[in-house]
Design goal:
Radius of gyration: 20 Å
Largest sheet: 6 strands, mixed
Number of helices: 10
Number of strands: 13
CATH architecture: 4-Layer Sandwich
Order of helices and strands: HHEEEHEEHHEHHEEEEEHHEHE
């Protein structure tokens, strides 16, 4: 056998080895059972007089126009999408703030967008100095920073918050689950490097999200002084992936927001079965457990059907009908077509008052 054939056979074997060694995360029960547990939490909060967040908003740290075929299979007619990289901030009557997914740091942003440019995306547009989104955050009021997972586009923006502190260390509480602390996924390990840098600089105070985390389909409180904010392990995209829930009252009605992280990168992929991320991406870029990801998408679809506001980080401005991503019946199919065909045109920096969306 020629050397070329030997090398080709070795490359194929290596690819098959990688593909076959993807992590496995069995679902923690049926979708309905887990959704029922989340509903029970919503009902408990609805009967409680405790203080809930008075505001909940998101801001863009960067945006990049990319072909939808880079984000999800099965949408050949969809126009290019302005892929969002948001930071979420909830605030309580006391002034305490919860930050979820601080987004992309100015210095990480250009390099992060390069791979998508190689395969048809436009140049990434970074908020940078033109739009100092971090100034909407008060470091001395942040009670916790949590992450849907530890990839650089969800973690590195913490350095922008640290920059606000100047020469005085911020001491911002950053909370990781045990699953995030121990994740051996390549990109989550790199994300922990950004947190280590902030720790060395004296900017953050590392804390643990609760006790030893288990993927049991049960939401947990983020902190005792942040009533209405919860997290739940949801591995599949990465070992450390999780959902974040924020509940607040809007015109007297209790509304539950679900920050979905990277379960999907294109909102319509939630609404129908059979729309995973592209095979090359989920096999060689981020080694996802597609069986579990299909379950995760079904859970988000069920929560959407039950009236939760499901937020897709990288498609944050997806169109909604009566608050839902996936409305039922014929009207729902028409609305889904509209989602696929709109030109989103998301600006680099925009504050979405999600409480009113």
């Amino acid at each position: 056998m020629s050397q070329t054939r030997v090398l080709a056979a070795g490359a194929v074997a290596a690819m098959l080895s990688i593909a076959c060694s993807a992590p496995s995360f069995p679902p923690p029960g049926s979708v309905a059972e887990v959704a029922d547990r989340i509903d029970a939490l919503r009902q408990e909060l609805d009967g409680s007089p405790g203080p809930l967040p008075v505001s909940f908003a998101a801001a863009g740290t960067a945006t990049q126009r990319v072909p939808v075929e880079l984000l999800a299979d099965g949408f050949p007619e969809a126009p290019d999408l302005d892929m969002s990289h948001p930071v979420f901030v909830a605030e309580w009557p006391s002034g305490s703030q919860l930050v979820v997914d601080p987004g992309l740091a100015t210095r990480a942003c250009p390099d992060f967008g390069t791979p998508a440019e190689w395969v048809g995306g436009e140049e990434i547009v970074c908020a940078g100095e033109r739009d100092p989104w971090a100034e909407r955050i008060r470091p001395d009021s942040v009670a916790a920073v949590v992450f849907s997972h530890l990839h650089v586009d969800h973690v590195s923006g913490l350095s922008e918050i640290c920059r606000l502190c100047g020469d005085v260390p911020c001491q911002v509480p950053v909370a990781l689950s045990s699953l995030q602390e121990t994740s051996d996924e390549t990109h989550e390990a790199a994300g922990r490097g950004w947190l280590d840098e902030a720790d060395v600089a004296g900017c953050i105070v590392p804390t643990r999200l609760g006790a030893e985390a288990q993927d049991d389909g049960r939401p947990r409180a983020i902190a005792a002084d942040l009533p209405g904010a919860f997290w739940m392990p949801l591995p599949g995209h990465t070992p450390g992936s999780q959902l974040t829930f924020v509940f607040r009252r809007v015109e007297g009605e209790l509304v539950g927001y679900v920050i979905g992280g990277d379960v999907v990168n294109y909102a319509p992929a939630i609404c129908e079965d059979g729309h995973p991320k592209p095979w090359l991406y989920r096999t060689f870029v981020v080694r996802e457990d597609e069986e579990r990801q299909a379950w995760n998408r079904a859970l988000l679809r069920e929560l959407d059907a039950r009236g939760y506001r499901v937020l897709v980080n990288h498609h944050l401005d997806a169109e909604r009908t009566e608050g839902r991503l996936c409305p039922p019946g014929e009207a729902g199919q028409e609305a889904l077509g509209q989602i696929r065909s709109i030109e989103t045109g998301m600006p680099v920096m925009k504050a979405w008052l999600l409480s009113g969306s």
